[in-house]
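Dear colleagues,

For the upcoming journal club I promised to circulate an example of a predicted protein-ligand complex. I picked one with flavin-adenine dinucleotide because it came up in last month's discussion. The inputs are reproduced below in full, followed by the predicted structure.
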Amino acid sequence: MIKGASGVRRVPVLIVGGGPVGLALAAELGWRGVACELVEQGDGTITTPKMNEVNTRTMEFCRRWGIAETVRDCPFPADHSLDVVFVTSLAGHELARMRRPTRAQQKADSFSPERLQICSQLWFDPILQAFARAQTRVALRYRTRLESFEQRGDAVTAELHDLETGRRETIAADYLVGCDGANSSIRETLGIALQGQGTLGHPLHLYFRAPDLLARCGREPGVFFLAIDRHGLWANIRVIDPANGLWRLMVLDTDGKQTPDTIDRTALLQRAVGRPIDVEWKGLSIWTRKSVVAACYCQGRVFLAGDAVHQLSPTGALGMNTGIGDAVDLGWKLAAVLQGWGGGSLLASYDSERRPVGLRNVRMATAFHLAHGAFSGDMAAIEDISEAGEALRRRIGEGLSKNVGRMFRTAGLQLGYRYEASPICVSDDAPPPDDPEIYIASPQPGSRAPHAWLADGRSILDLFGRNFVLLKFGQAETTALQQAAAACDLPLTVTSLDEPEAAAIYERRLVLVRPDGHVAWRGDSLPADASALLDRVRGAI
Ligand SMILES: Cc1cc2nc3c(=O)[nH]c(=O)nc-3n(C[C@H](O)[C@H](O)[C@H](O)COP(=O)(O)OP(=O)(O)OC[C@H]3O[C@@H](n4cnc5c(N)ncnc54)[C@H](O)[C@@H]3O)c2cc1C
């Protein structure tokens, strides 16, 4: 860190917010050798864990950072059932069960070297934090709050408040990134509006410890239970930390007027479990379910990422995962500009690429949530021990698995997003349909470069990350691109592959993959002007 003539300390990137998105950005920048400082007003303790599902794409980023194994080794047991179960209550009737193999039973998917991992925020944030801290150029400062900031010429000046000592400090940064969550004061200061459907409801979380809960209810194991009774689909019950018997009951909606004092926890738990039960209460939170995206993701030298710019229903487990995608996209671009090879419009492409993904994911998460509402009709007989009751349960169970169950079948949603209208990708054919359930491997520019196993046992994805990579399948001349890269200091690796399976997936002899693992351009031979191609993909035109 350097001090300017004014005596003000200067950092290349100041990140505000030490949730998973801020930590991921700090880690990504540090991993790329870019110095940054992260300030977080809290002390890093997670009292009310929200996130549980680290999706396949985020696991691929973790793989690149070298921490995927640590995430997989988190305390969630590999042999724990991952079944999703629809019940009238935990001790009541089972309407349907979506059987899913345990982590230990899972076979590799054809489309990724990684798989979605259950890893509560209780464990995931500390893993990210330790990884970010291990990067020599990253400084993490907890109990430090951003009070205000101002953009001036070539810097952003920020007022920081050390909440432990009371000390205030002015710091200058080349770039400021607000990963400061749903109530982002940075977004507010910039006057950037949130757009969309707005508030969808006021869910309630009850955290409790109840070892052997399922055994006490006579229920076969599972990971996520959705409760539907005569009043409709009203709650879900999720195991968070099986070894310690930690559970979460989420009541899908309240009237918005409740306070922690007016909530009857015992009655709600009894309704979910189907009988009175003693538990150790750990916490309670009422939150707002939203469907909004910020009107833009940046202004001048200030960028926003994560919940600061998209707030969505947790149905589909997309909140943090979308934010980590923001961090990775912004991370390589900031690094490129700070290292001198990124062009003048590279950073603006952050908004062009990530905002459409935010809109897509918010739309899909909202659709998953709205599917719950279809199960609120006449359920009077749903708990009856009668033929009519059984027939109703069978019918509703089928409908729930088909419709509400879609939020657990999201391979396309996790991996199929692409930067279609990106100014820094050179698009060619029309992309395949964007189906949330089905992932169709697409090597078209803008898409995540598809996975293929290589003869040496690596995934082709393991080649991407640090540099631009020009994949070369067969004979093709690449010298002009290498010379153009050297001329603008763009880090480029040319990798020749004699891999028929990968060649078939990638369809062209030459494929240029960006540091974030997205395809930038492809062709059977280089274009006449290789410099113009590189200027396009590094945001220099
Ligand atoms: C019930 C539930 C389940 C969920 N499950 C999943 C899931 O399975 N998968 C998934 O991907 N997502 C899930 N999510 C969403 C996920 O939890 C959020 O999207 C994610 O936590 C957002 O991360 P963030 O870093 O953007 O923001 P946050 O986690 O909100 O972090 C923002 C941080 O900024 C700090 N901050 C704010 N202002 C300042 C300031 N002025 N100075 C310093 N620090 C500041 C705050 O203290 C906070 O720590 C779930 C959400 C809920 C509610």
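Two points we might discuss: The mean pLDDT is 96. The two ends are 31 Å apart (CA to CA).

See you all on Thursday,
B. R.
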